[in-house]
Amino acid sequence: MSNSKGILVVLSGFSGAGKGTVVKRLMESYDTYALSISATTRQPRVGEEEGKSYFFKTVEEFEKMIEEDKLLEYANYVGNYYGTPADYVNNMLKSGKNVLLEIEIQGAMKIKEKNPDAVLVFLTPPTADELKNRLTNRGTEDLATVEKRLSRAGEESNGIENYDYILVNDDLDTCVKEFNEIVVSEKKKTFRNREFISEIQNEVSKFKK
Amino acid sequence: MSNSKGILVVLSGFSGAGKGTVVKRLMESYDTYALSISATTRQPRVGEEEGKSYFFKTVEEFEKMIEEDKLLEYANYVGNYYGTPADYVNNMLKSGKNVLLEIEIQGAMKIKEKNPDAVLVFLTPPTADELKNRLTNRGTEDLATVEKRLSRAGEESNGIENYDYILVNDDLDTCVKEFNEIVVSEKKKTFRNREFISEIQNEVSKFKK
To answer: Taking the model in full, what pTM does it have?
Structure first.
């Protein structure tokens, strides 16, 4: 098919659902994905590279991007801006890569508003009990941190129904395979193949005499 | 996930696209599918079994089914009624089977109207040239039949954009695998998993204190 444009895939999910691991495995297993890179005004940490970890911006630069509508979404978190530069995402999509964007629900909804063709996937452990186990058994954290996590899961669960897909992460290999199948299937949606459909309709109409 | 209801999958496509072969292979390869069985008023042919090939009905019986809204769609073709009995489809869906319905575009649109959750797949050869080759090289038919087929392909191509997915049948194995992946991915749509989502939201909300 002539459709070679990539899909913007937004991944959200409970902390403890394994989003980071799923993204890492997707990148390792398939050459069809690219990771979205965020812009931020926070200081680079040791080992972080410009254009790889983040696009590091001054507050002035970031606010100019906001004004010029160059961010798919942004938020201010503990005094620093974080956002998704539209240009980078769009260039990757044009080159045919499916762009992965790991982001929380407010950002996900803004993305969907600006890019209705984006695919939103919510990742969850198989059960709430399993989620609780994963959040409490990480080991190192104190009780207050664990409780904060559990409480946050409650907030994260609001709005799952606004996502396109819900994906259970029980077995990692299965989950990564299913995630990729969702994206591969989405590429076959008719609205993503208008050019190919027009071509074949045009050709076939010539059969009529 | 608690979602065990099947999906109604409508398959249309150009004559010569290989719909019949794809359906046959799907049924052989996966135990998750059931074939929809049509009702008709035409006479049974030798070897055709009631409730297997068709549900054979009198005109009175068929028209009663129409009145009682017991058909998902129906049409009159060369003096005989053909239709899709809703009860049979709904029972199969409830039992967890994905129900395959091979039907042309007018019927497909009626199905989508009555069952918005149905998934509509349009099957096509990779190119119009390939379609022409398949339609002309079947061997046995005379020129008039071939031309009728070619002309019909033009009509069949109208409205492809009203389907959910367009699937290219180039290699049969690949096509059958991709068809199944579309259905498996569709089962992960959030709107098909409302019960599971409510459950997990309810459980997770108890984490908050």
So the answer is: 0.92
